[in-house]
Amino acid sequence: MLQTENEELKKKVKETLPSEQEQERQAYLSTVEKFIQLSFHREKQGYEERREQAKKLMKEEVFQLFYPTDTFEMEDTYVSKPSDMKLYLQAYRIGASQVEVITEFQNTVTIGANGTTDKTKNVMKVTVQKNQESWQVTNVEELAVQIIAS
């Protein structure tokens, strides 16, 4: 009885250590950042590799939203790349298995041989859930998209 209680207390202490919390924080923020990079970087070159990486990072429903086909379906000259990413953490409870992160980033889309460019500012809420040792994106909600005048 006391031994079980002692083990539980040791676990709580370990979870509350700043280094442990920071490692956990870095892990889920890194997952969200990787998710944005893989989901909003769209171009023919490297599509299959990005798709394979994304499959490991996302729940199946989310994966199907961003990678509905095995091959790149847009024009060869279509390129979309995210940049200027900022991540904001919503309330986090120590030991929580699910976290919501607000992400703000700029997305630049270039279409056609003449290089027509559109820029948008995107704000999204990304929900990640811990599965064993890694975090996985389980839900994405678009909060705002604003066109940036060139």
Q: Which structural traits does this protein have?
A:
elongated; 150 residues; MerR family transcriptional regulator; Nuclear Transport Factor 2, Chain: A; 4 helices; alpha+beta; 37% helix
Topology:
Blueprint: H1 2-16, H2 18-40, H3 47-57, H4 60-66, E1 79-89, E2 98-111, E3 116-131, E4 134-148
Antiparallel strand pairs: 1-2, 2-3, 3-4
Structure report:
The chain is of the alpha+beta class and 150 residues long. It has one domain (2-148): Nuclear Transport Factor 2, Chain: A, CATH 3.10.450. It contains four helices and four strands; from the N terminus they run ααααββββ. The chain has helices spanning 2-16, 18-40, 47-57, 60-66; strands spanning 79-89, 98-111, 116-131, 134-148. A four-stranded antiparallel β-sheet has the order 1-2-3-4. Strand 3 and strand 4 form a beta hairpin. The N and C termini lie far apart (67 Å).
Quick recap:
It comes from Bacillus pseudomycoides. It is built from four helices and four strands; from the N terminus they run H-H-H-H-E-E-E-E.
- The CATH topology is Nuclear Transport Factor 2, Chain: A
The value of Rg in angstroms is 19 Å
Q: Strand arrangement, largest sheet?
A: 1-2-3-4
Tell me the total number of β-strands: 4
Output mean pLDDT. Answer: 89
The residue fraction in helices comes out at: 25-40%
What count of domains describes the coordinates? 1
Structural class: alpha+beta
Strand content: 35-45%
Task: Identify low-pLDDT runs.
Answer: none
Counted by DSSP, the helix tally is 4
Give the second-level CATH assignment, the architecture: Roll
